[in-house]
Every structure is written in C-alpha cells, then in structure tokens.
Write a structure and sequence with these properties.
By secondary structure, this protein is mainly α. Helix content is 43%, strand content 4%. The radius of gyration is 28 Å and the shape is flat.
C-alpha cells in the first residue's frame, strides 16, 4: 500500500532527517561509551583495561589456554555415561516434585 494514499497519518511530526538522526545517535553512543570507560576503568573500544582508577583489572586466563580446539567433539565413553547419569538423576528429581494445583479450583 502506498503511504501517500493511506488515510491513516503515521508521520505526526514530519519526516526525520536521516543524516541528522545518524549523527545524533553516533554522538550519544560515543558519549555513553566514554562514560562507561570512565566508570569501569576499561577501554571497551580496544578491549583493554585502563591504568589507574577505581578498579584494578587482572588477567585470569585466555581463550587459548582454557580451550583446546583439537578435543572439541571428542569425549570418552565414561564422560558420555556420566552425562547420561546426571540427566537421569535430574529427571528423577524433577519428576518427584509435587504437582501444582489447577487454577480456579478446577
């Protein structure tokens, strides 16, 4: 349907200037990121902590040391059996929960 032919008027305050709106949103985003950088003492654009400030950031590990891609998808028979046992026990535990009464006494 052509908006010009529609009886309903949806643009109550005139057509927005997309360039002006885009500039405004970029400015507000930059301001917000700058405020968060100061609050958390962290440069979110670069992904690194900043020197000084309230918080002192410590590196705890890296993706490379925590995950070995060569073992992705591999698991031993014992691990698979353990997962099955945990799932079975969880299902048993939840099946023993009392049923909720029906709404409105029905």
């Amino acid at each position: 349907m052509n908006p010009e032919e529609s009886k309903a008027k949806k643009c109550l305050f005139g057509r927005p200037d997309h360039k002006e709106l885009d500039e405004y949103l970029k400015k507000e985003l930059k301001k917000d990121v700058q405020e968060k950088n100061e609050k958390w003492n962290f440069d979110f654009e670069k992904g690194v902590p900043k020197a000084g400030g309230t918080f002192q950031w410590q590196k705890v590990g890296s993706v490379e040391t925590e995950r070995d891609d060569s073992k992705v998808g591999e698991s031993s028979a014992a691990e698979k059996e353990e997962v099955k046992e945990v799932a079975k026990n969880s299902a048993d535990k939840y099946s023993q929960l009392p049923q909720t009464p029906p709404k409105n006494g029905r």
